[in-house]
């Protein structure tokens, strides 16, 4: 691996890399994910990536996403119930990260594969396997002597990782085969020629990929497995930490929390009204600015790139430091201050378009960003309507620990009080 890296910490550097059509290959450390995810959208590159991106984009059309609103609402209510049980048993401050993580895992599994992990009794096993895989990637990243697969696979960590990966792969493959048999038994596609649903069955992303496979036989079952596993990885921990960090901030800013609560109460049980709430949108964006779940994005640089008035020669890797980009005082005065009004329409228009990139930007922007924002808002609205949150630690006291996503050291411990 090339050890020469340029860290980019401003919007101009982010724009130069993200809009480039020549620098779309992810950095070398992403290779640690390929055993699990293969070459799905996150790790793929070149013509194959362009083809797959074009193929999958319709699956995230807003009309398709509307199918998931009621499902996300159900998972939000289950999160509320589970948190209420946890608070009753603990009788003191609780770490909100585990229950939120299980909720987002359940929701992405049902939307990606059409499978209810809780109903199958697979929730704890799948959750633990995903945790092992995430930890293994970080473990290898900081131990260069384990970068070669043949060495890592001989270690105890390597053997545990393979066992977890095999379970995840086998589960996804089983679901794909069962879904294919279900499609075949209907005697017709569940999608019409315009990608619209036929009948009353709720679609999962898997259904749309199987429909695409009938149109494009080059899309193999293993390709579909890679994309489903990628959705599961990208759509689980990132949204879980985004929700948890937002609760942390709301727990430190009771006046903001109360305003969000009042706005959510006015929207009632209409999930579409919740998704359209303007102040909740500002709060979520400001939370993503201060605590972006994805800390950095790495790109290879095999041909050189012009960034501002500087030429970066080939073979100098490019690391986009999102945490630092979001705290650039040139775009965000008093950058450590939590201020949702930074995302008023007027301030957003006046700011550099690449100053805020929690979902990346340019050609490789996150294909599931609309889905993620839907889930964040629906779950947060349900939580603040039911509970009052008071964080144990202040923003200055909070410490981070390095993982694939931005995590707190010691969890996000919060006093959670049910509202009467």
Automatic annotation (TrEMBL):
Keywords: Endoplasmic reticulum, Heme, Iron, Membrane, Metal-binding, Microsome, Monooxygenase, Oxidoreductase. InterPro entries: Cyt_P450, Cyt_P450_CS, Cyt_P450_E_grp-I, Cyt_P450_sf, Cytochrome_P450_Monoox. One of its GO terms (molecular function) is heme binding. Heme binds at residue 366. Its cofactor is heme. It holds the Pfam family p450. It is found in: Endoplasmic reticulum membrane; Microsome membrane. Its main location: endoplasmic reticulum. Gene3D superfamilies: Cytochrome P450. It is a peripheral membrane protein. One of its GO terms (cellular component) is endoplasmic reticulum membrane. Belongs to the cytochrome P450 family. This is Cytochrome P450 4C1.
């Amino acid at each position: 691996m090339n050890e020469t890296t340029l860290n980019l910490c401003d919007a101009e550097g982010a724009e130069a890399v993200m809009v480039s059509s020549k620098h779309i290959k992810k950095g070398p450390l992403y290779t640690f994910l390929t055993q699990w995810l293969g070459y799905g959208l996150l790790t793929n590159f070149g013509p194959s990536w362009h083809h797959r991106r074009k193929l999958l984009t319709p699956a995230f059309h807003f009309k398709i996403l509307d199918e998931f609103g009621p499902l996300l609402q159900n998972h939000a209510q289950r999160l509320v119930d589970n948190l209420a049980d946890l608070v009753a048993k603990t009788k003191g401050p609780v770490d909100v990260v585990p229950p939120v993580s299980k909720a987002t895992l359940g929701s992405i599994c049902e939307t990606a594969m059409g499978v209810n992990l809780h109903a199958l009794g697979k929730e704890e096993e799948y959750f633990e396997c995903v945790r092992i895989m995430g930890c293994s990637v970080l473990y290898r990243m900081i131990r260069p002597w384990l970068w070669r697969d043949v060495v890592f696979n001989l270690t105890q960590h390597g053997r545990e990782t393979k066992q977890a990966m095999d379970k995840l792969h086998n589960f996804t493959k089983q679901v794909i085969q069962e879904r294919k048999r279900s499609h075949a038994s209907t005697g017709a596609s569940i999608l019409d020629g315009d990608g619209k649903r036929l009948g009353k069955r709720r679609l999962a992303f898997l259904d749309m990929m199987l429909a695409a496979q009938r149109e494009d036989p080059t899309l193999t079952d293993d390709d579909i497995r890679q994309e489903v596993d990628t959705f599961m990885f990208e759509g689980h921990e990132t949204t879980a930490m985004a929700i948890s960090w937002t609760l942390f901030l709301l727990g430190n800013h009771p006046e903001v929390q109360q305003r969000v609560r009042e706005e959510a109460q006015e929207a009632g049980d209409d999930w579409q009204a919740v998704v359209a709430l303007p102040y909740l949108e500002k709060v979520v964006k400001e939370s993503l600015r201060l605590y972006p779940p994805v800390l950095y994005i790495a790109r290879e640089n095999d041909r050189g790139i012009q960034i501002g008035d500087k030429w970066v020669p080939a073979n100098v890797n490019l690391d986009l430091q999102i945490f630092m980009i979001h705290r650039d005082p040139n775009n965000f005065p008093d950058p450590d201050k939590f201020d949702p009004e930074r995302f008023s329409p007027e301030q957003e228009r006046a700011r550099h378009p690449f100053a805020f990139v929690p979902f990346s930007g340019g050609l490789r922007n996150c294909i599931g960003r609309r889905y993620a924002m839907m889930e964040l808002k629906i779950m947060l609205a349900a939580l603040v309507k039911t509970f009052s949150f008071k964080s144990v630690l202040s923003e200055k006291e909070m410490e981070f620990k390095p993982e694939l996503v931005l995590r707190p050291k010691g969890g996000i411990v919060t006093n959670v009080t049910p509202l009467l």
